[in-house]
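Per your request, structure below.
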């Protein structure tokens, strides 16, 4: 029988650090973290203290397996021969070799969620143009025509942004257009929550022919070359849709300074799907995870941990990353 893998949210590391909970090395389970933790730890003032917690409890890193084209295979592996400090250093070196700014489209996501700051959205085309020029500057072939190509695309992108701004982004109107005129999606509870939400939305989707999986991002129309869309990417996409709908959403999804935290939450839920359980102090994250896992028949248990809950944690499911 496989040893249960228990994924701990970043806030669990914080609770352990402050002495509010008491996790320790266990023979009957393995505490698990991912590179998503490193993305959050990197933003902290003192990364080492968080890495030390992971090291003390014997936590192991769970990593997505990529194919030869750097696409997600849908499987994950447990890295057991490296310490959190070694994995973090490898992470820092890896991202240091990648010049692409993953936050470049944050203004678009924030605007779709109802954010009110137009400035970053208006700067999107310039930032994207600069990013492409930077990425292509060192290519081993002639790129002298690249500025002209980018220049031709920029007006179209600017026009799209202008249209978005002129149409407005009142999130209440957006949700009403999707069939949720009274905020009922935010109050959905009990079992089969995504199915309940789809019942509210589906009448507005009849002309599009879109089904529930497509709407929530588990079967996108543009599969980006994937034969089968990975569940991890589906979970991340589903979280983005939930932000727009207002299901267990937080106001931080409408703030450019906080959107990276929203991405991390989605990533944690996605990685937790490979484990027996996911632990978090965030009630909204736990509720979202439960709804998503239930919808996709993922047996991961979503467990809410509160401060001073010095109790033994026993995951009920038995799922490994193998």
């Amino acid at each position: 029988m496989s040893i249960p893998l228990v994924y701990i949210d970043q806030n669990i590391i914080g609770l352990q650090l402050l002495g509010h909970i008491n996790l320790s090395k266990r023979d009957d389970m393995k505490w698990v973290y991912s590179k998503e933790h490193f993305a959050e730890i990197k933003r902290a003032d003192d990364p080492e203290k968080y890495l030390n917690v992971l090291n003390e409890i014997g936590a192991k890193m769970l990593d997505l397996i990529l194919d030869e084209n750097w696409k997600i295979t849908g499987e994950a592996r447990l890295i057991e021969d490296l310490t959190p400090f070694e994995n973090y250093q490898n992470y820092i070196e890896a991202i240091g070799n990648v010049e692409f700014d993953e936050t470049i489209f944050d203004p678009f996501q924030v605007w779709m969620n109802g954010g009110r700051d137009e400035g970053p959205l208006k700067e999107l085309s310039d930032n994207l143009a600069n990013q492409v020029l930077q990425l292509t500057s060192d290519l081993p072939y002639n790129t002298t025509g690249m500025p002209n190509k980018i220049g031709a695309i920029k007006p179209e992108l600017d026009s799209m942004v202008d249209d978005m701004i002129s149409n407005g982004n009142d999130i209440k109107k957006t949700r009403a257009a999707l069939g949720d005129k009274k905020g009922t999606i935010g109050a959905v509870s009990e079992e089969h929550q995504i199915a309940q939400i789809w019942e509210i939305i589906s009448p507005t989707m009849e002309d599009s022919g879109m089904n529930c999986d497509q709407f929530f991002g588990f079967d996108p129309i543009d599969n980006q070359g994937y034969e089968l869309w990975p569940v991890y990417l589906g979970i991340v996409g589903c979280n983005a849709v939930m932000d727009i709908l207002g299901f267990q959403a937080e106001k931080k999804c409408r703030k450019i300074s906080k959107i990276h935290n929203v991405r991390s939450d989605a990533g944690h839920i996605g990685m937790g799907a490979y484990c027996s359980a996911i632990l978090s102090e965030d009630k909204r994250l736990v509720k979202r995870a439960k709804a998503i896992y239930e919808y996709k028949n993922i047996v991961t248990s979503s467990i809410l941990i509160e401060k001073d809950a010095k109790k033994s944690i026993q995951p009920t499911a038995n799922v490994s990353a193998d």
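The two ends are 12 Å apart (CA to CA).

Regards,
D.
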